[in-house]
Amino acid sequence: MITRIKIALVIVALAFAGITNAQMTFEKVLQQVDSNNLMLKALKQKLEAERIATRIGLFPSNPQSEFIYQWGSPVAIGNKTTISITQQFDFPTAYIYRAKLAKGMANALENEYRSKRSEVLHKAGLLYADLVYHNALLVELNRQLKNAMVIAQSLKQKFEAGEIGVISYTQAELVYHELNSRITQVKLAQKSLADELGTLNGSVALAIADSVMLVPELPDSFESWFGLAESQNPELAYLKTETENSRLKLKLSKAEVLPTFNTGYASEKVGGERFQGIVVGISIPLWGKSNTVRYARVNERYMQLLADDYLFSFRQRSQQLFSKVKTLQELAAQLNQNISNLDIAGKLFLALQKGEISIVDYYTELNSYNSIKERLLEVQHECLKTYIELNRFAY
């Protein structure tokens, strides 16, 4: 019996531990998705396979051996036996450039994987921001609902006492039911967002309890921020690597149009006579490599222009997002200050109780106050999502 109680206590403790650990911060959410996302797991395996594939073809071709046995006619001339072993070699510089290109291709594959990873984590980050916003909105709506309940109960008592008419009481009831409806919609949105985030996390649910949308401060200078962001961008790194690879391909194509060599051993036996010695040959690529150098040169130029265009677009887009975050942070601070200065919910209720304002005036003023608070949440939400977009390659 004591053993069963101990086991039960351990199970309960583990359950509470699981709930506690499930409360995820932004960084933990991205760490979980990075570890559990099924597509990223598949891409890691693909990356390993393609890394191996880059090493294919770095060594000389296989040696060739040949054995020929021929019967003589007439028989008197005897039989003929020929044996040869040869090996073909490209021009030596070709092997150097192939080895460098293999390393460059492996780097490009790594950056391509990092780019795919950043897409997944970026999507997870935006889902996190949406969930935190809905959590914050739910807290605000519950606050409004609590106030509406107090007002409705107060007006109900006055209505039953004959102090007010049915219209004022009914209006309070409508406000209460409307807030209940909005809360239900927010909860449905939370469920949908949580399911989508769980799918990204390999069907492992994540409980996001945060309801405060904190946005880290950006440097005052865009240039100081951009220097780090440029070095963290895997898409840009991929294009730069591919540009360098295109240069190596040009050098390799030039090396491959140089002659190739054959060397080996040959032996020939006819009757009682035997000949043996070395084999040396040369192959001059007159037609087989036609236009390969021209193609490689044009492709190198194309990759350089593509990288330049991406860097320009990335810089322009980043500068726009940087300015937008700064502006939204200032707007959020201003709205927050206005809310602090206009904290009149309690004052309005007191004025309503004393009969200084009508129920219509009360709800008009209260709706303005509530609208500002909800607008603050919207601005903070947009600011957080913009910040995540701006720093999408930082995680």
What can you tell me about this protein's structure?
- The chain has 395 residues and is α+β, with helices and mostly antiparallel strands.
- It has helices spanning 2-22, 26-36, 38-53, 92-160, 166-200, 222-232, 234-256, 292-341, 345-354, 359-390; strands spanning 64-70, 80-89, 260-270, 273-283.
- Strands 1-2-3-4 form a four-stranded antiparallel β-sheet, with no helix packed on it.
- It is elongated, with a radius of gyration of 37 Å.
- The protein starts with a helix and ends in a 5-residue tail after the last helix.
- The model is unreliable at 1-23 (pLDDT under 50).
Strand ordering within the main sheet: 1-2-3-4
Helix-strand string? HHHEEHHHHEEHHH
Coarse morphology:
elongated
What is the terminal-to-terminal distance?
50 Å
Task: State the helix count.
Answer: 10
The percentage of residues in β strands lies in 5-15%
User: What structural class do helix, strand and pairing data support?
Assistant: alpha+beta
Helix content: over 70%
Mean pLDDT: 83
Task: Itemize the secondary structure elements and their pairings.
Elements: H1 2-22, H2 26-36, H3 38-53, E1 64-70, E2 80-89, H4 92-160, H5 166-200, H6 222-232, H7 234-256, E3 260-270, E4 273-283, H8 292-341, H9 345-354, H10 359-390
Antiparallel strand pairs: 1-2, 2-3, 3-4
Helix pairs in contact: 2-4, 3-4, 4-5, 4-7, 4-10, 7-8, 8-10, 9-10
